[in-house]
Amino acid sequence: MPDPNLASMAKIARHDDVYPPAEDSFLLVDALSSLWNTSLRARKPSLCVEIGTGSGYVACSNALLARGHGCGEITTTRASDVNARAVETCAATLRAHGVDARACVVARGDLLEPHRDAIEARGGIDVLLFNPPYVVTPSEEVGRDGIASAWAGGVDGREVLDRLLPDVRDALAPGGIFLCVLIEQNKPREIMAMMEAMGLRSAIVSECRADEERLYVMRCDKPR
Ligand SMILES: C[S@@+](CC[C@H](N)C(=O)[O-])C[C@H]1O[C@@H](n2cnc3c(N)ncnc32)[C@H](O)[C@@H]1O
């Protein structure tokens, strides 16, 4: 059933060079909404970060979920993307939904770089979200300008994600949660074993079929 806190999410900004919300984005937001309905509203997260925000659909959903669960004054969402057009599009999506800069900040940059100061100031990230470029492509396509950066994942579709994974544990606050979209070709079981070896409990919390792909949301929890 759709989350009533997201009933007003109808004004997603678009740009030809920016990934529009698709099945993977919806699967991630469904998992996020379940998380708010279970543990997050009690935990009252201080810092939520979405890497690779694209249209801003996921980050804006998180800000609206925080507000809907009474955490509007407590939770800051930070969104970022390497694509400058995505940063502008995310800002337009936030404005269209009445989400101001106290509730959600958007910045341009690679992976966790734009969030380093906030991570330090807040003692880590409570919720980290990433729907990465996960499609298997030639390595030369990774990191190209514009819309190509939305999907090109290189070898195993993991070249961008594999640069983030070693930093996740330290970036999370005690009890922090990482939600990440994966497809079968990314070798989810191998990634979960890596995360477990780093001390993060890992599980697939939702999955669906979209066109030719099997999509998963992986959840990793840092112990308190
Ligand atoms: C599959 S799209 C997801 C967009 C949006 N989060 C959603 O779920 O609809 C991946 C996004 O990651 C961004 N991206 C790619 N490489 C990145 C990097 N190194 N750092 C930050 N963002 C990156 C892309 O520009 C793109 O917007």
Write a structural description:
This protein is an alpha/beta fold. It has helices spanning 23-43, 57-68, 84-96, 116-122, 148-151, 161-171, 188-197; strands spanning 47-51, 76-81, 104-108, 125-130, 172-183, 201-210, 213-221. The chain has a single domain (4-221), classed as Rossmann fold (3-Layer(aba) Sandwich). It contains 7 helices and 7 strands. Strands 3-2-1-4-5-7-6 form a 7-stranded mixed sheet. The mean pLDDT is 96. Bound molecules: S-adenosylmethionine. Residues 19, 21, 24-25, 28, 51-55, 57-58, 80-83, 86, 110-111, 131-133, 149-151, 160 line the site of S-adenosylmethionine. Residues 19, 21, 24-25, 28, 51-55, 57-58, 80-83, 86, 110-111, 131-133, 149-151, 160 line the site of S-adenosylmethionine (SAM).
Which terms would index this structure?
binds S-adenosylmethionine; alpha/beta; about 220 residues; globular; about 35% helix; single chain; Rossmann fold
Q: Topology of this protein?
A:
Elements: H1 23-43, E1 47-51, H2 57-68, E2 76-81, H3 84-96, E3 104-108, H4 116-122, E4 125-130, H5 148-151, H6 161-171, E5 172-183, H7 188-197, E6 201-210, E7 213-221
The structure holds S-adenosylmethionine (SAM).
Major β-sheet profile: 7 strands, mixed
CATH topology call: Rossmann fold
Number of domains: 1
Kindly state the number of beta strands. 7
Level-2 CATH architecture: 3-Layer(aba) Sandwich
Which structural class fits the helix and strand makeup? alpha/beta
CATH class placement = Alpha Beta
Straight-line N-to-C gap: 31 Å
GO molecular function, one term: protein methyltransferase activity
Protein name: Eukaryotic/archaeal PrmC-related
Domain Methyltransferase small: 29-137
Pfam families: MTS
